[in-house]
Amino acid sequence: MGKWMLSSSLEEWEHVDHEIEDELIEQGFTSKFIVSLMLAMDEIFANISMYAYSGEEGEVIIESSYDIDDNYRNAKISFLDYGVRFNPTERN
User: Distance between CA 9 and CA 69 in Å, rounded?
Assistant: First the structure.
C-alpha cells in the first residue's frame, strides 16, 4: 500500500513510522497488534541505522502491504537496505 525511500537517519524514520501507523489503523488492526508491530519496526530500523552503514547514512526502502479478509488480517512490512549484511548465526 505504501513505499518509502529514505535515508537511514532516525529522524526520517519518524515520518514513515507515523504513516504506517495510520495505515494500520485505517486497515482495522487492533491497538495491541499495532503497538507490537511498531515496536518491532522501530528495532529493525534502529539496527539498520546503527549497524548496516557503520554510522554513515545510507538508503532504506520500506514497503507496506495488507491482505484483509473477513476471517483474517495480514500486514507485511518490508525493509531493504544495502548496508553490511547481518547474520546472527555467523560468528566473527
Answer: 35
Other C-beta atoms within 10 Å of 62: how many? Answer: 23
Q: Where are the alpha helices (DSSP H) in the chain?
A: 10-26, 31-47
For residues 55 and 52, give the distance between their C-alpha atoms in angstroms, rounded to a whole number.
8
Mean pLDDT of the chain: 92
Q: For position 19, what pLDDT does the model report?
A: 96
In angstroms, the CA 14 to CA 11 distance is 5
pLDDT at 78: 97
Cell readout for 29 is 488492526
Q: Each residue of 46-87: pLDDT tens digit?
A: 999 988 988 788 999 999 999 999 888 999 999 999 998 877
Q: Answer yes or no: are the C-beta atoms of 7 and 53 closer than 8 Å.
A: no
DSSP state string for 64-89: EEEEE-SS-EEEEEEEEE-S----TT
